[in-house]
Design brief:
Length: 260
């Protein structure tokens, strides 16, 4: 076997602000065999060329996906995502990253009257079940056949962390993969391998504590900071299982593409 065929999958992750890094999702990617390099343009770091990387991850943040004046690297990131949509390289984009992918795919972004913060029950669509990466989440769902209003799901049992007020529509031509709640676009694929999520596979209760402390969003009706933290803590085992499956599936996909 050549040294090139043994090369580890390399993933570039773009972090938009302090406290929004890849967290344990990055650890799970490394556990699955990937090297994750984090670039922080908010600290003045230059986003490197993608040529030596197998994929891009765009992480979350408190900004909206088109708030370019405060975040002057955002247009460059959206341009990268357009390249991913056209098939140049795979990308996995989380919350703000997913919203930026939606914008790159010409989908509208709206501001919700009330944010979604805490644990929400999601489920895979039939397209999600068949997806080469997100199918790993569908395999862990319980049977149920819930209907969300957007599309029938084959199962429920995918508790996930949401922390957002911006809401994305499904871009034209995209496949809806994960749905649920009254923000039905929870994960989608645009093109062959540009994925976006609204939910956070990387976060945990410790990070949620920091986000709640540093955020002035009104909490959803009936929730308190303590109840949100308790929700996330109570579902940590399921969140860990699902996040690890997603990370492993993404690395498997990249490895197969690298060696195919």
């Amino acid at each position: 076997m050549s040294s090139d065929s043994q090369r580890r999958v390399r993933i570039l992750a773009i972090e938009h602000e302090r406290g929004t890094g890849p967290q344990r999702f990055g650890e799970w990617l490394a556990e699955a065999g990937a090297e994750v390099v984090v670039t922080r343009p908010y600290l003045g770091e230059v986003i490197p060329e993608l040529g030596t990387f197998d994929a891009l991850i765009v992480l979350g943040g408190s900004a909206g996906p088109t708030e370019d004046a405060e975040n002057p690297w955002f247009p460059e990131v959206r341009d990268l995502l357009r390249r991913s949509i056209t098939g140049e390289f795979p990308s996995l984009n989380i919350c703000l990253g997913g919203e930026m992918l939606a914008v790159a795919g010409d989908a509208p972004i709206t501001r919700r009257a009330h944010p979604q913060i805490g644990i929400y029950e999601l489920g895979a669509t039939s397209a999600g079940e068949a997806d080469p990466v997100f199918g790993a989440l569908a395999s862990g769902e319980s049977a149920g056949g819930a209907t969300t209003g957007a599309e029938s799901t084959s199962g429920t049992g995918l508790p996930s962390v949401l922390f957002h007020q911006e809401e994305m529509a499904l871009p034209n031509g995209a496949e809806l993969l994960i749905t649920g709640s009254d923000a039905p676009v929870q994960a989608f694929r645009l093109g062959e391998f540009a994925w976006g999520t609204q939910f956070h596979p990387e976060t945990d209760a410790t990070q949620i504590v920091r986000w709640l402390d540093g955020n002035d969003l009104a909490l959803p009706a009936g929730k308190t900071e303590d109840s949100i933290i308790a929700e996330v803590e109570a579902h940590d085992a399921a969140l860990t299982e699902a996040g690890r499956r997603l990370a492993g599936s993404f690395v498997d996909f990249l490895s197969a593409r690298q060696h195919g």
